[in-house]
TrEMBL record:
This enzyme's EC code(s): 6.3.5.7
Name assigned to this protein: Glutamyl-tRNA(Gln) amidotransferase subunit A
Family that this chain belongs to: Belongs to the amidase family. GatA subfamily.
Native source organism of the sequence: Lampropedia cohaerens
NCBIfam families, sorted: gatA (TIGR00132)
PROSITE patterns: AMIDASES, LISH
Classification via PANTHER family: GLUTAMYL-TRNA(GLN) AMIDOTRANSFERASE SUBUNIT A, TRANSAMIDASE
Length: 497
């Protein structure tokens, strides 16, 4: 029986092939670099450096030859361009940081390198991770003369989701076996759903934020994106762990082997199904696919438990007060003084700030800075920001009440499948509403993941969202893995890839 092409093989299979020496790290890296070059029209990569990648691969081959291989030795991985890197530009897809190179690697990048991973390059994202479609890109992709949105491999006229759309598209198209992403309000889960792959946002603080270009500090969390739950578990095992010296929000929880419970039975598992996730606004095709996935879980021995998350509809206004407020503070540092873009024309310091930020930030970033500055201003801080923080606490409490009745919570990732590029560009609110089902878990700091669960309109993927209680990533990955053992949605690939 012939082996599937390298870009169709799992992380587990590729790492085993490297250890068995049936393929070298250099050959594997070359294969994926060639695929990235051949599919530049997707706009997934913002930066590549073949010399750097192949040098890392040759070093991995040397360790494999001496038997000193680490867990992910030689595995090619690509990083969302929200993580700073020494060997590649780190732009956050913004003109403000065009060409910027960091003097250090983000902890996520370093941890994966320490586990043996080889960096393929940097992946496109919405500017400063602000967007739901990966259309807010202000720097050109590799091979492109001008900035462009990332395209969904399942249908190049559609968005891949955002803000980690480059990561999702690269994995779905087989340009990388795995990628890093970040999730502030759903930016791992939603693009994973739209592109038919698996992605997990761990508990807030599980993974260090050091070296992640900040959007909303109390919400941003890194996570892996790959074909399957097993692949995500292997990556998460390398990425997670405390980082007290460099990230004060890092949890003092030891690193884990997240593959340890993948095969555990889910007989008797109580799956909470929130009625708020199945009301008006969810498309019929998405509802059908999610219901079929829940029926599959029942065949595997789980049972549905109806639950309530009564403040779900408040998640959008709460998020779009808190996140812009934090963005307003975080993006204040981009003023043209120490690094990044600086306007060429100005008469004094105030005009330099004004011109630099006007030229450097895109429209969506400006919109969120202005909203955030407004809600933090005198006279509005109590009325908006403090009230949003109180409701955020209530949303978190709603989840804890629900977890007294169930083990995991399941529902759709998004109300619809991926929309057409440009379809919602003129209506920011329509983009914001696409996050209605992912925002509550983000506000509560809970782990959540998306896994492929079928197809909807236009043959586009539909993602099932699983939400767990704090630090229950291993349970979530187990529940996802057992579903993927019984179905083949995660193995299906877009035509031509």
């Amino acid at each position: 029986m012939s082996q599937p092409p390298l870009h169709h093989q799992s992380v587990r299979a590729l790492t085993q092939a490297l250890r068995d020496k049936t393929i070298s790290a250099t050959e594997l890296a070359s294969h994926f670099l060639a695929r990235a070059r051949d599919h530049q029209s997707l706009g997934a990569f913002l930066a590549m450096d073949e010399d750097v990648t192949l040098a890392q691969a040759r070093a991995a081959d040397a360790r494999l030859a001496t038997g000193s291989a680490r867990p992910l030795e030689g595995l090619p991985v690509a990083h969302k361009d929200i993580f700073v890197t020494r060997d590649f530009p780190a732009t956050a897809a913004s003109r403000m940081l065009a060409g910027y190179r960091s003097p250090f690697d983000a902890t996520v990048v370093q941890k994966l390198a320490d586990a043996g991973a080889v960096t393929l390059g940097k992946l496109s994202c919405d500017e400063f991770a602000m967007g739901s479609g990966n259309e807010n890109v202000a720097v050109p992709a590799v091979g492109a003369a001008a900035p462009q949105p990332v395209r969904n491999p399942w249908d190049s006229t559609r968005v891949p989701g955002g803000s980690s759309g480059g990561s999702a598209a690269a994995v779905a198209a087989g340009l990388a076996p795995a990628a890093t992403g970040t999730d502030t309000g759903g930016s791992i889960r939603q693009p994973a759903a739209f592109c038919g792959i698996t992605g997990i946002k761990p508990t807030y603080g599980r993974i260090s934020r050091h070296g992640m270009i900040a959007f909303a500090s109390s919400l941003d969390q890194a996570g892996p994106m790959a074909r399957s739950a097993e692949d995500c578990a292997l990556l998460l095992s390398a990425m997670a762990g405390p980082d007290p010296d460099r990230d004060s929000t890092s949890l003092d929880v030891p690193a884990e082997d997240f593959t340890r419970d993948l095969e555990a039975s889910i007989e008797g598992l109580r799956i909470g199904v929130p009625e708020e996730f199945f009301g008006e606004g969810i498309d019929a095709d998405v509802r059908t696919a999610i219901d079929a996935a829940l029926q599959e879980y029942e065949r595997l021995g789980a049972r549905r438990v109806p639950i309530r998350l009564p403040r779900t509809e408040l998640a959008i206004p709460v998020y779009y007060i808190i996140a812009p407020a934090e963005a307003s503070a975080n993006l204040e540092r981009f003023d043209g003084v120490k690094f990044g873009h600086r306007a060429k024309q100005y008469a004094d310091l105030a005009e330099m700030y004004l011109n630099t930020r006007t030229e450097g930030f895109g429209e969506e970033v400006k919109r969120r800075i202005m909203v955030g500055t407004y809600v933090l201003s005198h006279g509005y801080y109590d009325a908006y920001y403090l009230k949003a923080l109180k409701i955020r606490r209530i949303i978190a409490d709603d989840f804890q009440k629900a977890f007294k009745e169930c083990d995991v919570i399941a529902g759709p990732v998004a109300p619809s499948v991926a929309w057409k590029i440009g379809e919602k560009s003129a209506d920011p609110l329509a983009n914001y509403l696409a996050d209605i089902f992912t925002l509550p878990a983000s506000l509560a700091g809970l782990p959540g993941m998306s896994l492929p669960a079928g197809f909807g309109a236009g043959g586009m993927p539909v993602g099932l969202q699983l939400i767990g209680n704090y630090l229950q990533e291993a349970r979530l990955l187990n529940v996802a893995h057992r579903f993927q053992q019984a179905t083949d949605f995660h193995l299906q690939r877009p035509a031509g890839f």
